[in-house]
Amino acid sequence: MDQVPDSARHLIECDTESCRNYSEFYCNTCHQRICDHCKEAHLKENTGHEIVRYHERKRKLPSEKCRIHPIKDIDVFCKFCQDPVCSTCFAQEHSDHANSDLETIYNDILQECQKEMTDIWKTVIPKAKENAESIGGKRERMSRKKLPSLEYP
Ligand SMILES: [Zn+2]
Ligand SMILES: [Zn+2]
Ligand SMILES: [Zn+2]
Ligand SMILES: [Zn+2]
Questions:
Q1: For burial by CB atoms within 10 Å, which of 18, 27, 56, 118 has the most?
Q2: Which residues surround ligand 1, an ion (CB under 5 A)?
Q3: Which residue segment(s) compose the domain that 88 sits in?
Q4: Is 140 exposed, middle or buried (0-12, 13-18, 19+ CB in 10 A)?
């Protein structure tokens, strides 16, 4: 359908089931390739998904499961505790802390380093902690005490 030479067509095909079009776009949210044709439908079905050109795509975070929630991937970085956690842990234990999207940190650091890193847990996390420390200054760890529930007068 698209005007793409046959030689390029098989290289990156759309990931939508039963679609074999050449794909020029990428959904950063689902981490799948998507063609111009499927783009509209995808956005209609999945509100808020971020579709970019293929060469501008985000790299998928290498997955690591949470020890407490084995079905959840670790994808949040708590800036306060400087720990990578899963979204459930974050909601339960760190709800009053500032967080970063671990995938964004990963992609930022990838760009800095200009190469793909397979071992995020050895390379990216220490660097993320370093950055968090230099931004936040000296860390004051106030224990993970639960804040009293807010009372409005
Ligand atoms: Zn999507
Ligand atoms: Zn398609
Ligand atoms: Zn967890
Ligand atoms: Zn925290």
A1: 27
A2: 27, 29-30, 46, 49
A3: 74-136
A4: exposed
